[in-house]
Write a structure and sequence with these properties.
With about 150 residues, this protein is an all-alpha fold. Helices cover about 65% and strands about 0% of the residues.
């Protein structure tokens, strides 16, 4: 009997379901606090809104643009080792958190400026890696998109 069938018979949850439940529970907790007026989504994310733009960290933005230019230049020259895997993972995690937090606070921009700056294959490869890192399936992404309208 396959592990999936065995899990279904015993009623045990798959690793993906158990892992997915934690963020969902956390999101429901934050949403419940926000609904009760105890916490706004922006405050939960650490971003101030109320019609006022959060203070933009110009130094961090300049550093990010410089790092992006360095990575792009190295890629053009065939150097693939600009960032260690650990540095890459830390940067990707921070960018994911930042993008998610900004959207929750009401920002409305896409993570990539235009369709020509990154190829569709690069987008799909990155998306696939992010889903795998979070132990999520494309089905779960589709369900989340239909629930949230994003």
């Amino acid at each position: 009997m396959s592990p999936r069938k065995a899990a279904a018979r015993t009623g045990s949850r798959s690793r993906r379901t158990a892992a997915s439940a934690k963020p969902v529970a956390a999101a429901k907790h934050v949403a419940a606090k926000a609904a009760a007026g105890k916490l706004t989504a922006a405050k939960a994310a650490g971003v101030e809104t109320a019609g006022v733009k959060a203070t933009v960290n110009g130094a961090a933005s300049a550093e990010a643009k410089h790092l992006a230019a360095t990575i792009e230049g190295d890629l053009r020259e065939g150097r693939l080792d600009t960032l260690t895997p650990e540095a890459f993972q830390a940067l990707m995690a921070a960018l994911c958190r930042s993008y998610g937090t900004q959207l929750e606070a009401g920002a409305d921009f896409l993570p990539v400026a235009d369709r020509t700056s990154v190829s569709p294959t690069e987008i799909m490869t990155t998306t696939s890696g992010l889903l795998k890192a979070a132990n999520l399936a494309v089905f779960e992404l589709g369900m989340w998109q239909s629930w949230t309208g994003r």
